[in-house]
Structures are given as structure tokens and as C-alpha cells.
Amino acid sequence: MPELPEVETVRRGLEPRVLNKTIQAITVHYLPMIRPLSLDVFKARLIGKTIAAMRRRGKYLVFDLSDIILLVHLRMEGKFYLGDETTPKMTHEHIRYTFTDGSVLIYHDVRKFGTHTIKEVDALETTHPFINLGYEPSDIRLTATYLKNKLKTDRKIKTVLLDQSIILGLGNIYVDEVLFCAKIRPTTRAKRVSLKKCRSIIACSQKVISKAIQLGGSSIRSYTDSLGISGLFQNELNVHMREGELCYTCQTPIKKIKVNGRGTYYCSKCQQY
DNA sequence: CCGAATTCCTGTTGGC
DNA sequence: TGCCAACAGGAATTCG
Predict the structure, then answer these.
(1) Strand partners of residue A53
(2) Is the CB of A158 under 7 A from strand B?
(3) Does at least one atom of strand C sit less than 7 Å from the CB of A59?
């Protein structure tokens, strides 16, 4: 499940290898994955375009194609592989971009949740989904006051931190780790979280995410041979996937519960409120 | 308007 | 051993 650190790792691995390449052909095996849904339009707009840069925003990958943008979301299991014309079609290959130099970029996604969307450059920031996105953990505009204001809700703090319109990039793994770091119980109502704890959430988000990027993300239930998905942060996890194991801080067994349908791990002693 | 539940999808896991 | 329901979850959509 790629979250911000995994997506950033993919971007860093991919950008130098696709930069300045020009799309010559596209094969799509699963139509619902592309926007616009029309294969003819999708192809017509992309073919002939050159990759001028690759960026990331939250969990989105942005391919700058000079005058338009290809916006990719990996969702749960999206992965990129590089190959050439002789590379056989993979089992879960859904989209293949062939470049004029003969190399190919393959999009692989077991659960078919990912999306590839064409956007106008001018419309990117002013339309869905970017118009509703919050701040990156590293953004200086992400202040305790801003966060406190966003927490005026009855929802649980974990649910709110997963909401991409507030803080960008946290998914189910890192939100558990951030809440452990900030010593807040995932089920605590957002409106009960103090300004001081907001400061802590922000500091912990920056700390956890930057450390995870340094280590190339986490490899949980993931293959290790695709681009960028061979991280080591899974060895740094304090609570996620550690049900029944002892807290490194206080030796209390880690608990697992459900929060809004999501598997949630926490230490009942370190995270009291 | 708000928040919870459902939906998309398929490989893996656990119970019987 | 084999079968099958339950499970995993980001974000859009539907429901109450």
C-alpha cells in the first residue's frame, strides 16, 4: 500500500529512467483505469508527448508532459516496471507506455484500483483532485493552528489524519506510527486533541515520513523487484502489524482494533488519550 | 452538512 | 486436504 514515502521512492527511482523519453504507443488492458475513459482520446492526447519531469503530491505521481499532465495514483498495489519491446505481458499488467527509444514503462496492479488521468496543466491545481488536497507534512503552512482548526469534528483522530484534504500522504501504516509517536490513541475524538498535541502530530508526521523516505519506504506484503518498492522502514515500525508483540517503550502488548473498518494498531499504555 | 457504510478488486489467510 | 468466507484498504460514492 504505497503511501507518501513509497510514492516518493518510486518517483526517485523512475524519474531518471524516463526523463526526456517520448511516448510512441500505449496499450491499455483495463479501460476503467484511465481518464478520460475513451481509449482513442487517451492515446491521442499522450502519444508524441515527452516526459519533462516527474513530481509527487501526497500519494499522487505527476508526469509533466510539456503541455499536459499524466496523473497517476497507485492506490493499493500499483507498481511500475521498466522493460523493452521483448518484455512479455505480465499477469497483472494493465497499461504499457512504449517510448520512441524502444523502452517500455509497464503499469502493474493486482487489484486494479489505481488510476491514470490526463489533466490540463492550467487545470491541475484548480480542479479535482488537487483542489481539495491539504498540505505536505513538510509544508510550512502546516501549523498547529491550521490543524487544530481542521479537528473540529466528532470523527476519530485516525480517520481525520487519513483525510487527504488536511495532511497529505499518510495512509494506514504511517498514521498508526504517527499516532504512536505523538502518544495519541487512534480512537480519540479529533475535537479533543489539544493544540499542543497538534504540534506533536505535525512534528511526528515530519519525523516518521522523512525517516521512511530515507529508508526507501516500507515493504509490507509487497514484491521487492518492482521500481522503488524495496524499502526498509518496515523494520522501524513501532506498532503497525505488531499485534501481541511488546511495545519497545513499555513492554505492553500492542493491541489491534478496527477504526472505521481499518486495521489499527496502538499501545494502550503509551497512547492513553 | 456530517459521518458512517459501501463499493471497487483479487491474492492471501484462517476456520472448519 | 480442500473449500470458501473473511480480509486487506484509498478514495469515490451512497446512505442515514
Answers:
(1) A64
(2) no
(3) yes
